[in-house]
Amino acid sequence: MSTEHSNPTATSPNQPNAAPTHGTSEHESAPEQKPIRTSRGIAVVVIAVVVLAVLAVLGILPRQHALAALDASTRQLAAPSVIVATAKPGAPVEELNLPGNVTAYTDAPIYARTPGYLSRWYFDIGARVKRGALLAEIATPEVDSQLTQAEADLGTAEANANNARIQADRYKGLVASNSVSQQDTDTYTNLATSTAAQVRSALANVQRLRDLKSFEKIYAPFDGVITARNIDTGQLIDAGSAAGAGKELFHMQAVQTLRIYTSLPAIFSGSAKVGASVDVSFPENPGQLTHGKLVRTSDSIDPVSRTLLVEIDVDNRGGKLLAGSLAQVHFKVAPVGTAFIVPVSALIFRAEGLRVATVKGSIAHMAPVTIGEDDGRTVQINTGLTKDDLVIQDPPDSLIDGEQVHVLTPDEVRTASQGGN
Asked: CATH number of the domain at 81-91+337-420, please?
């Protein structure tokens, strides 16, 4: 027989109100913790932020310094190296040698004024003709027929007008005695007026055709030389002009006096005196000077080239000079300001005009200039420079206004010259 030992304090699992037991202790709780102070937490955060900021600054500043150094080095290497020199003062400009275009005093194309066929021409190129000389003849059978018809129409109109005038005069005499009505008289009077107008119209048509017939003969309009003949016998001739369908028959030039046009720099425009004598030379006559006369100017400065257009007339009755050639005009001008001498290589040709590059500090500036004497090696600058300007001797073509440049020192120039040798 077995014996059961029961715990009086134990609770049967079937008891609903039994409380669970946890371990060996009757009551168990979490250990106590000290509360975190707010001020100490903020201080830790601030210190962390400061440390991060210091680290960031220590990392960024060297990088920015390196970038700035790289940028400065890049700019220095990109800046073109140039050699500069001060502009040397030159003698005042007293004479200008300018190119001039030689043209005929009168230049005219000659067209036909009536249609037909060329029956004959009388002068060829190079022929010197007088005003009124017969150059060619045109056969105009159509105009001849039209003129014959017009003259017949004029005769008919005159006969009708004469008959109407007689009838009108007769009715005017009869109406006074009340033999005819006033209405019939007015009718014949108006008929006489109308037929008289028809006569004038027919007469004008006859005169027009007679004028056309007179154009069968082509005459020289002035004394000159035939420079072109564009027709031959038997060719069909159409009336017209340069703007129409007509063909130019001849081209004539009056070359007894030649016009020479040249452009004088605006700064010397005060020296262009109408009536002044001007020397002119021609390449085909080396060593010889021809005396011309300044006859007129445009009296206006060209805003693009800043020059004054002048005309010089030269006597060519000897026929030694040819229109269309190029001349050198030797102008005597009054000195203006101080001229400076620079090498030709210092000139920069741009769309806006002639320029010379100068340097102030390390910045290039484009100075607009006007030139005078040019001997092929050096050129005289009349305006645009001062005695303190440093002129770039051989500027690169890509140089622009305001660009930074590196001015070579004398030692650097010497070193570069030795290295090149």
From this structure: 2.40.420.20
